[in-house]
Task: inverse folding
């Protein structure tokens, strides 16, 4: 059911920017792109979302391509506490489909 | 802390038994969602309630049921439990049922022996 494709894992050095890609080539016009993360077995934590414009908040930036078929989540200065599984979700708000996500390993 | 609370944190029971998981949404949120996360599967959407009424259904088994009460807390009832029902169960809430961000609780870990 997931409408997104993400790499299963990525590494990032502490203090560097982490760029997590997501493909959602079948996204339709009224669907939003959401990003959540899950640290260990805790409840998923909301990070950011967008429709077509780039978005930034205190946690991250979201870059959505002009054709909306892919997006990138950017953590500008990754810390060890950012090690988690990151989920990219496309939703029209009727249902949220969580795929397998990307396991981000932040290394010292 | 998302403001969503779930009880109990852990639950151990036997096959064939019935359990109830409880969720209190964030203050002011009208919509509640239930998810299941098994070891070999990702987060699976089960069901959504909005202001006491069922709004959307996902991959919820017939042995499972849920309800949302007038005070907006929700309960997920799991019956005739099987080993495969062992999982993390998360509740999420949002203000409305439309274009709203979901905020997740800490989950209930269910172990069926």
Result:
């Amino acid at each position: 059911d997931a409408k997104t494709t993400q790499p299963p894992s990525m590494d990032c050095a502490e203090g560097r920017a982490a760029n997590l890609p997501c493909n959602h080539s079948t996204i339709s016009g009224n669907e939003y792109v959401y990003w959540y993360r899950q640290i260990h077995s805790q409840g998923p934590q909301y990070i950011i979302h967008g429709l077509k414009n780039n978005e930034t908040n205190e946690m991250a930036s979201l870059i959505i391509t002009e054709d909306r078929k892919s997006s990138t989540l950017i953590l500008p200065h990754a810390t060890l506490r950012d090690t988690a599984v990151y989920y990219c979700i496309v939703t029209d708000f009727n249902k949220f489909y969580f795929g397998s996500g990307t396991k981000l390993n932040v290394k010292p | 802390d998302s403001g969503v609370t779930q009880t109990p944190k852990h639950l151990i029971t036997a096959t064939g038994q019935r359990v109830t998981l409880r969720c209190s949404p964030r203050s002011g949120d009208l919509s509640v969602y239930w998810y299941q996360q098994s070891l070999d599967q990702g987060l699976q959407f089960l069901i959504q309630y909005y202001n006491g009424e069922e709004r959307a259904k996902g991959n919820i088994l017939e042995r499972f049921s849920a309800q949302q009460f007038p005070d907006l807390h929700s309960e997920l009832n799991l019956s005739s439990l099987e080993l495969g029902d062992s999982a993390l169960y998360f509740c999420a809430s949002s203000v409305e049922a439309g274009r709203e961000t979901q905020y997740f609780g800490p989950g209930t870990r269910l172990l069926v022996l």
